[in-house]
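Sanity check

After download, print the first record. It should look like this:
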Amino acid sequence: MLRRLSVKLSLLFVGIALVSVGVIVLWVNNSVQTEFRCYCQESYQGQAPPDSMHPGTGAGGQGGMPYYMGEMEQAFLDSVRNSLWLAAWVAVLVGVALGFLFSWLITGPMRQLTLAARKVAAGDFSYRVSQKTDDEIGEVSDAFNTMAEQLEKKEKSRRRLLADIAHELRNPLSIIQGNLEAWLDGVITPAPEQVASVYDETVLLSRLVTDLRDLSLAEAGQLKLSQNATKLGEFILAQIASVQSRCREKRISINAELPDGLPLVLIDRDRIRQVLHNLIDNALRYTRAGGTIKIGASYKTTGWVTVFVSDSGSGIVTEDLPHVFDHFYKADRSRQRGHGGAGIGLAMVKRLVELHGGTVWVESRKGKGSTFFFTLPVA
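Expected structure tokens:
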């Protein structure tokens, strides 16, 4: 029973009330008696009243000093003493009542927090604590509600992620399974083109699993980086050279805008190569023939170099901009998987840049193209 916080607080308040009232009563009683006897002695100027007690003999006589007090005076002192003890008992009762009241006011929100914590632990992330005060308990309630809201969002994101992963894996697996069953049943004879199609699906499946693994490691902070000082201009030009053939096939021009004097950057070359590859691949996917892609950098913020990848593609509508870096988010849901991507590339870009300590963002207008920016630390 004594382990309950409400009982401990109640006993604490009651104890404080008893000690405080007891000290006050004893102090006032002693002071009133002493002052009143002095008053009586001075009033009668050493002459005892007719109904007085014997000098020097009565309760409270000290050091043989005489005092003079009649029956009326003694009755007055008794009345004062009784009133003090009555007031003391009333104060104790009021203190006990207030103790239980304050204990309930303090432990009530704590009980609500306990109930809410059990609800969240059981998987009910929608439960919230009613915040009624602006004190420390109210701050704890507000912090708990914020935590529950974040957990609810993460749970929804987790469920959506699992559903998207299952959807993305189902498509290539269905194609592979269907072709293998047809070959085994002798319905069709495997031609080189069909074998190549199945092989492409296995490559896509392998790449998807690899991207998911890297993304999960990056989000968990377990993806190790091997950072080295790198000349950013040469690094970007090398990435442009690696995609020149794809750009020529699509009749898209790709150019670099690199100012002189760019400082060395401290990066994991393989991971930033993956970032640029995903951004360039995204630009190629949404840029029509005859369009242009620009890759550049600038050094305007001390300690950070800003890299951008710009295209003249279809652009992104305003309501989709906050979600382009989410898992499996596709701004154009009408696109097929083979043309629109799996929706992991930009999420991977965000995580890899953040692992380097940088930030990533996008600026775009529908029909006016898009520009993706990210920052890298100076070596």
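If your output differs, re-run the checksum step. Summary of this record's structure: The chain has nine helices and seven strands.
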